[in-house]
Amino acid sequence: MLAARIIPCLDVKDGRVVKGVNFVGLRDAGDPAELARLYDAQGADEICFLDISASVEGRGALLDAVKRTADECFTPLTVGGGVRTPADVHALLLAGADKASINTAAVTTPEVIDAASAAFGAQAIVVAIDAKQTGAERWEVFTHGGRTPTGKCAITFAREAADRGAGELLVTSMDRDGAKTGYDLALLARIADAVRIPVIASGGAGTLQHLVDAITIGRASAVLAASIFHFGTHTVGEARAALAAAGVPVRTV
Amino acid sequence: MQTIALIDYGSGNVRSVARALAAGAARGGHACDIRLTRDPDFVARADRIVLPGQGAFAACMDALVADAPLLAAMGEAVRTRGAPFLGICVGMQLLMTEGFEHGAHPGLGWIPGACRLHESGERLPHMGWNAVTPVRQHPVLDGLAPTRHMVFMHSFVVAPADDAATAARTDYGASFASAVAQGNMVGVQFHPEKSQAAGLDLLSRFIAWSPS
Fold this sequence. Notes:
The complex is a heterodimer of chains A (about 250) and B (about 210).
Chain A: E1 5-13, E2 16-21, E3 24-30, H1 32-41, E4 47-51, H2 54-57, H3 63-70, E5 77-80, H4 86-94, E6 99-102, H5 104-108, H6 111-120, E7 125-135, E8 138-143, E9 148-153, H7 154-163, E10 168-173, H8 185-194, E11 199-202, H9 208-216, E12 222-225, H10 227-230, H11 236-245
Parallel strand pairs in A: 1-4, 1-12, 4-5, 5-6, 6-7, 7-10, 10-11, 11-12
Antiparallel strand pairs in A: 1-2, 2-3, 7-8, 8-9
Helix pairs in contact in A: 1-3, 4-6, 7-8, 9-11
Chain B: E1 2-7, H1 14-28, E2 32-37, H2 40-45, E3 48-51, H3 57-65, H4 68-80, E4 85-88, H5 90-93, E5 98-99, E6 105-106, E7 113-117, E8 126-134, E9 148-154, E10 156-160, E11 166-172, E12 174-182, E13 185-188, H6 196-208
Parallel strand pairs in B: 1-2, 1-3, 3-4, 4-13, 5-7
Antiparallel strand pairs in B: 5-6, 7-10, 8-9, 8-11, 11-12, 12-13
C-alpha cells in the first residue's frame, strides 16, 4: 500500500533556510544542504526546497544551492521558486531536482503547466497553490509569495491545474502558515475531492496530531512541515510513528 | 576496475543516478568507473549498462533512436555481449515491445510486453514510497525479500507478455510488475537512486551481479 509521505520543507531566502509566520517575520533556520542531510538521515520521505523570494525578485531558484542540497539527499527532491518556463524546469531537473514546483507562473501563464508536463511528465510537475480564506467555503489564490491577490477560487484553480497536467498539488494555507494551529482541513478536503492527483498539505503543522488530521480528515496524500522539524520540536521518525499509531500507512525504514 | 555506462540521452535527473551508483559501488567495496556517457565506444565495451528515464515513453525512445550509434552500442553490449543491464523507470518501460503513452509507440522490444496507464481507480501519478514484493529469486532483488519500500513517481506500468519476466510486484489499487528480469536484463519501475538505503543496496547488488 502506498505510504503517506512526510516532507520537511526548506524555505530558502538568500541561500539560507528561513521560517516565518503567515509568510512574514522570517527567522534563520540553517543551511539548506545541512538540513537536507539531517532530514535524509531521519528518513524523510521527500524533501522540498522552496526559494521563497525568487518570484518577488524576478529570478530563478539558486541553482547552486539546489545542487548542494540535491547532493545531500537520496530521496525525492522538489524545488520551487521563480519557475516560469519549461527551460526553468529543465534547469532544476539537471541540478538534481526530481520535481519542479510552479506557483506564480501557474496562475499568470497557466500554459506553462501544459508545456512542462508534456516535456517532462506529470510526475515532475507540482503546482503550488497559496490560498487564503476569504469567506465561508471560499478561498482565494495568491501569488508572488503570498503578496498578490488573484481573485481566483482555489478549488477551481486546483481543478484547472490538474486538467492541464500537474502531477501534484502543494496546497498551502496562508492563514495557517507558521501559526502551528493545524492545517486548513476544509480547504484540503475540498481540493482533494476536486482532483484525482495527489495533494500535499502545507501550512499550519504544529503538532503530530495535525499531520494525522491532514491525511485522515483533509484526505491529503502527503504532509509538508517546516517549523516542527527545523526547530527540533519533532523528528521525522516521531512524525512517522504518530501516523502509524493513527492507522495511516507509512513506509518501513 | 569495472566500467559502468550510465546512458546520457537527455533524460532528466541523471545526476542523482550517477551519485547513487557511486554510493552503491562504495557500499559493496567495488571499484567502478561510472560514466554518464553517449560515447558509443565506451558503451559498447562497458561492463554494465544503466538506462535511466524520465518523461514520456515516446519522447525517451525518440531520443535514443535519434542517436543511432549509441543505440547500436547499447545493443552490442546488452544483446550481443550479455553485459548486465539495469533500466530505471522509463528506462525499464523502454524494454517493452510497445508503449501506449500519447498513442502507440514501439519500444526496444528486448523483453516482450506492453506499457500502459495504471488504471486502478487510485490517484495518478503513483507518487511516493510503496512496498516492492519479489515474486521470484533474483540476485539483484533478493535483498528486498520479503518487502522493502521504494520510491515511485509514475503513471504508466509494464506488463511483460511472459509472466516469468515479472520479478517483483507492487500494489496500488491493483497489482503491477514493479520489477522485471530476463537473462542479463533487470528493470525497475521505482527509483533506487531515490530510495535511500534500500535503493543503494539494490544498486550495490546490481554492481556485484554476474548473470549466469
